[in-house]
Amino acid sequence: MVRAMKRSGWELAGLKGDQDLPVNSIRRSDRGYGGGEYFTAGTIGLFLDHGDYGDEPDYNPGSSGSKQTYFRSDRDSGDNGWLRMCQFGFGGNLKWMAILACNSFADPNYSSMKNAGAIPLKTTHLACGASTIIAVGEDIGAYWTKNMLRKQQMITDAWFNAGRSQYQNATGQANPTKFRVVGYPECMNDTVQNNTAPSTPSASPGNLTKQDSQVYP
Q1: Is it the case that residue 156 has pLDDT exceeding 90?
Q2: Is 90 exceeded by the pLDDT of residue 195?
Q3: Distance between CA atoms of 85 and 129, rounded to whole angstroms?
Q4: Could you give the CA distance from residue 216 to residue 200 in angstroms, rounded to a whole number?
């Protein structure tokens, strides 16, 4: 993805992973977390991790008792090693974010988080993820970039088509792979070239919507 972005004239805002990416560097700075909001420095972000979903209400700040989805750190341990969806540091310069992890927007957790305002997009237009178990494909970031920049596809379509390109020759996947894009209604038709800022951005938005697509088989 970095190479594809640079070939289109974009500059790299940051690249970190594993031991160099502590959870608190990703977290939001409000709600008492004091996180570093790492992804807000860039316009387009991509986060790759293991994802899971909870089946009990979560009462951490920003969750409001919703059933959260969770992402695991390779560096931090204990409860601090889990990043909750409600803790993500979105906003700032970040317009579009992709989370390549299993179950990032899985049902019924997505509905629970949406209804509680626990997906903190703030001024970020859209977050691209998955509603099922997925495989981490090494080329999906490059496909997403080419679709957004060269083909000038909508952010949503670029994400869905990147998944199809990545998994078209997949083997050994027993279950369908479904991608989901979540965001403000007025931003769902965004392209990089022509996009609309959220009309009522919020740290706990209550008006988010989604688009779904099965990308495999």
Answers
A1: yes
A2: yes
A3: 12
A4: 35
Instruction: Give the separation between CA 150 and CA 92, rounded to whole angstroms.
Output: 25
Q: How far is CA 193 from CA 28, 35, 87, 148, 155, in A?
A: 28, 31, 29, 9, 10
Which pair of tokens denotes residue 190?
Answer: 């965004």
Edge to edge, the sheet with strand 44-48 lists: 44-48, 96-100, 126-130, 177-183, 209-216
Instruction: Say what the pTM is.
Output: 0.97
Pull the structure tokens for residue 124: 């970020």
| DSSP for residue 125 | -
Report how far residue 18's alpha carbon sits from residue 74's, in angstroms, rounded to the nearest whole number.
5
- CA angle, 158 then 10 then 96, to 5°: 40
- d(Cα 183, Cα 121) in Å, to the nearest integer? 8
CA distance 187 to 213: 17
What's residue 175's pLDDT? 86
pLDDT band at 170 (very low <50, low <70, confident <90, very high): confident
Residue 122: other Cβ atoms inside 10 A = 20
Rounded-to-5 percentages of helix, strand, coil across the chain: 25, 20, 55
The H-or-E segment that residue 128 falls in is strand 126-130
